[in-house]
Amino acid sequence: EAQVTQNPRYLITVTGKKLTVTCSQNMNHEYMSWYRQDPGLGLRQIYYSMNVEVTDKGDVPEGYKVSRKEKRNFPLILESPSPNQTSLYFCATKGVQGTEAFFGQGTRLTVV
Amino acid sequence: LAKTTQPISMDSYEGQEVNITCSHNNIATNDYITWYQQFPSQGPRFIIQGYKTKVTNEVASLFIPADRKSSTLSLPRVSLSDTAVYYCLVGDRGTNAGKSTFGDGTTLTVKP
To answer: A31 and B93 in contact by Cβ < 8 A?
Structure first.
C-alpha cells in the first residue's frame, strides 16, 4: 500500500528546543515536499526536494531546514522553534512526471 | 508559477451538480492543472488533472477552454461528504514539478 508516513502526529514543545519531524515514503518517488497550513492561509510550501541531495526553498523556508540523504526520507528540522511555527505540517511526495502528489497524515505542532 | 484565483466559498445542496472555476491567466505552455480535495486536519487528496479540453474520471470532470486561462471542476450529484476545501494548482510536470503553490482554495458546503 502506498504510504507517506509522518512522525510524530502531535507535538507540543518549548521555544528554542530543536525538533525533527520525519517523513518517509514507500513509493520510490523522486519529489518530496513540506508544507505548513495555518487558518485562513491555505497550504504554503516550506522546502522541496527533487531527488537525493537536491533540495530547494519553497515559499516560507525561514526557520526550517531539511535534508535528503535517502530517497525515502525527508525530515523537517526546526533548529530553534518559535511560537509562530505553531502549525499543521504536511509532507508530500510525487514521482517524476507523476500526475498526483500523495500527502501524509499531518503533524500538529505547538510551540509554547 | 502561475497564480490561481478561486471563489472563497460555495454552497450547494445534496444531489446537485457543483462547478468550481479557477482562473489562471499566466499559465505556461508546460503547465498542467490539478485539483485537490482537503477535509479538516487531513492532507489534500488528488481529484483530477488535465492539460486541455475535458478530462473525466470516476469522481469529477475537468473542463479547460482552448485558451487555458481558466478551468472548471465539475462534481456531479454532490453529497454531504463532499463538503471540503478544493484547491486548484497550476504547475509543470517536468523540471519544476517539485515546486507547488496552493491558493486559498474554495470551501464547498453541501447542505441536506
So the answer is: no
Residues of A with CB under 8 A from a CB of B: 4, 31, 33, 35, 41-45, 48-50, 56, 58-59, 88, 90, 92, 94, 96-106, 108
| Cα distances (Å, whole numbers) of residue A27 to A7, A93, A95, B95, B109 | 18, 8, 8, 19, 33
Instruction: Please tell me which residue of chain B has the smallest CA distance to A41.
Output: B104
pLDDT in tens, B14-45: 999 999 999 999 998 988 999 999 998 899 99
Please give the Cα distance from B107 to A33 (Å, whole number).
Answer: 24
pLDDT at A22: 98
Residue A98 Cα distances to A18, A68, A103, B16, B43, angstroms = 34, 19, 14, 32, 18
pLDDT (tens digit per residue) in A58-110: 999 999 999 999 999 999 999 999 999 999 999 999 987 767 889 999 999 99
